[in-house]
Amino acid sequence: MHHHGYLWTGPKQRFDQEGVRRSSYDSDLPPMETARWLMKPASSIHGTWQEPKEAAAWLADRLAEYEPRFACHADRDSDRLAALVNSAVEHLGRGRDLSLGYYLERPVFLSLALVTCTPNRAAPELACPRSQ
Predict the structure, then answer these.
(1) What share of the chain is helix, strand, coil (3-state, %, to 5)?
(2) Is the C-alpha dihedral spanning 76, 80, 86, 88 positive or negative?
(3) Is the pLDDT assigned to residue 101 strictly greater than 90?
(4) What proportion of the chain, given as a percentage, has pLDDT over 90?
(5) Residue 117 and residue 95: Cα distance in Å, rounded?
(6) Do 29 and 15 touch, CB atoms closer than 8 A?
(7) Could you tell me which of 6, 120, 21, 124 has the C-alpha nearest to residue 58?
(8) 21-104-59 Cα angle (round to 5)
(9) What is the pLDDT of residue 106?
(10) Which of 102, 105, 101 has the alpha carbon at shortest distance from 69?
(11) Does pLDDT of 9 surpass 80?
């Protein structure tokens, strides 16, 4: 089992195109179901890690990178962000996926996902995009 990291930023209006997010895995938009990131091209992957702690460290780095741009001041709380990273280690260790979203300067949206691969608990039929 390993974990892939995904990141998307773009206009909130595009993110809200649920029909595209449900059906088009060729689109760069985040899928409606986190596990469906595995259907995207391997070029969509921002990192791959064997250990949950390594994947969570990537998440911590991304949160630190984007935190100054979070539109909601409460989302910038360092204790809350640390708890999210700790929770990510636990979730990934149990074979679960993690998906987070934040409004940045309007109308920009940030989507972060950590997806467990080989197998994915929510969608075990999905192959690893790195092996395709």
Answers:
(1) 45, 20, 35
(2) negative
(3) yes
(4) 89
(5) 8
(6) yes
(7) 6
(8) 75
(9) 77
(10) 105
(11) yes
